[in-house]
Amino acid sequence: MECGRPLEDLPSEYKANDICMDCVRWINEENYRPFKNRSLHVYDDEMKEILAQFKFRGDAELVHIFHRSFRELFQKHFTSVSSVIAVPLSREREYERGFNQAELLAACLPVKISYPSLRRRETEKQSKKTRKERLSGSNPFYFQGEDMFHDQHILLVDDVYTTGITVRQIGSLLYDRGAREVSSLTLCRS
């Protein structure tokens, strides 16, 4: 897994051989499958505030400030993908917000977005969970239909890459349905 975390400023105890410790942990997992992530920004205090306004205060128009740079990042790393899927919110969460921020980000890309029957069960907000809780929880994602992804390279779009668990949870479902490769493009990498 190559998470795209900037390693230059990362203390040596958080990386090994130019790989962050998150990726080292994933590589050592029994059912490891490689994933590639690219993020536009580091999730710093400024981006936390912008994302809070975007997601939690309902300012969906903020997506426009990322439009060009998000598209350029996609064109630099992911032009050969077969399908682009926005990470779904639970029905309750999407109703609460009035939009899915991942869908708004995916709409910035110069490709058609796929809308498979991928769904998410209602769970506690990821932002409220500890790292351990995020990594140990059951997979909230599932397919409602019989979608198949034979030999496809699937790109997942989301707002924040924190531990990599979302990509791995959805990715395992996609690989089980025939995907050749799963990658992710996110606005921020924490």
TrEMBL record:
Phosphoribosyltransferase domain segment(s): 98-189
A Pfam match: Pribosyltran
InterPro entries (alphabetical): ComF/GntX_DNA_util-trans (IPR051910), PRTase-like (IPR029057), PRTase_dom (IPR000836)
UniProt-annotated stretches for the region Disordered: 120-139
UniProt family annotation: Belongs to the ComF/GntX family.
Protein name stated in the entry: Competence protein ComFC
Organism per entry: Bacillus thuringiensis
